[in-house]
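Archive transcription. Copying these from loose printouts into the bound notebook so they stop getting lost. Printout 1 of 2:
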Amino acid sequence: MTQAEEAGRKPARVVVADDQTVVREGIVMLLGLLPGIEVVGAAGDGNEAVALVAELAPDVVLMDLRMPRCDGVEATRRIRTEHPGTQVVVLTTYADDESLFPALRAGARGYLTKDAGGDEIVRAVESVLSGDAGLSPSIQRRLLERLSEPAPEPALLPEAPDGLTARETEVLLLIAEGLSNQEIARKLHVSTATVKTHINNLFAKTGLKDRAQAVRYAYGKGLVRPPAD
C-alpha cells in the first residue's frame, strides 16, 4: 500500500511532458496502472507543458529534458516561477551533470531516469508532494560525489560596463572565446534557452547586433586582451 493510500489522500494529478509520442503514450499507460496517480494531461514540448499546468493546475509534472521549442529545464523554471503549487519530477534518459544540475537549479524536486520502475515513480511523486526530494539512488550518489569534490576557485571577472550583470559579462567573455550557445550552456551548467536570454539582454544593453560585434566590444572595453606575440 502506498503512502497516499495509507493517508487516504486523493490521487496525485500528473501531467506527462515528452516529445516522443511512443514514449509519452507508454508513460501515460504505465501511470494509468499505478496506484495514487491520475494522469490529467500530456504535452509534446515545454511550451505545451507550461500551458497545461496553467490550465489544469496538476500536482506534479513528469518532465523530459531534451524537447524542441522549449526544453525541460526552461519549462521547469517557468512552471516553478509561475505556478509554484505544481512540483516537477524530471524523467529522462540522461543522468550527466549537464542535464542534472541545471534541472535541479531550475526547481525540479525529483529526478529519475527512464529505467525507473513504477514503484520508483510513485515514490518520487509522493516524496515531492510531501516536501521531500524524489531522487533515484543513482542520482543521490552522483549528488553526494559532486558535493564531496573540492570547490573550484571562483573566477575573477572584469568590471562590467553598460550595466551588464556578472552572468551577462561571463557569457560575453565566452562568446569572445568563440564558444557556441550549446558550449556556453554546458560550461555554465544552464540550458541553451537561458544562454539565449543572457545574450539578448547583453545585446539590448550594449546595442550590439551580432556575435562579431560582441567580440569587438569585449576587446574594445578591455574585457579581453589580445594574445601576446
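Printout 2 of 2:
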Amino acid sequence: MLGLKLLTDPRWANIAESNLHEILSDHAWCEQKAASNAIMLITQNPEYEDLVHELTAIAIEEMQHFQMVIDIIKERGYTLGRERKDDYVGRLLKFAKKDGSRNQAFIDRLLFAAMIEARSCERFRVLSKNIKDENLAKFYYDLMVSEANHYTTFLNFAKKYTIDVDVEKRWQEWLDFEGELIQSYGTKEYIHG
C-alpha cells in the first residue's frame, strides 16, 4: 500500500528495544516535528480551507502522540532526551524542489510529509510485530494506523491541489530516492535511523 522500495529489516526492532529510552525520546521529537510541519503547511497555504481543517486535526493528533510518548517515557522512569538532528529527514528535505513555481514547492512539501508518514508507518509496523513488550507493541500498532491515515491525507492533497506537477510521476521519484536513501539507515535506535 505504501509503495516503499525497501522494507525495514525486522531485526531493527531488536536495536530499538535494546535502548527504549533512546527510541522513545527520538519518537517523541518526531511527533513534535510532524505537528510543526503540519502547522507550517497551514500558515503557508491558508487559502485551502479543507487543508487548513485537516492539517489542524493532524497537528493536534501529532501533539497528542507527543504527549502519549512523553507519558510512556515518564512511566518507565526515563526522561525526555534532547532533540537531535534527524539526518534522514534532512536528506529528504534537500530532495524537495524549492526552485520551481509556488505550486511545485507546495506539492513537494506535501509529498515530503507523505514520505515521512509512510516510513514512520512502516517502522511502527515493524515495532508492533517484533518487540516483546506487549503494551508497546499495541501502542505502535495504533500509531501505525494513524500514520497511514496521515500519509494518504498528504498524498491526496498533493493530487488535489497540483497545478503544474505530475504528482504520480513525482511521487515515484520520491519513492525511488527514499529507497536509495533508506539503505543507509536501520542500524540505530531512531525512528528513521
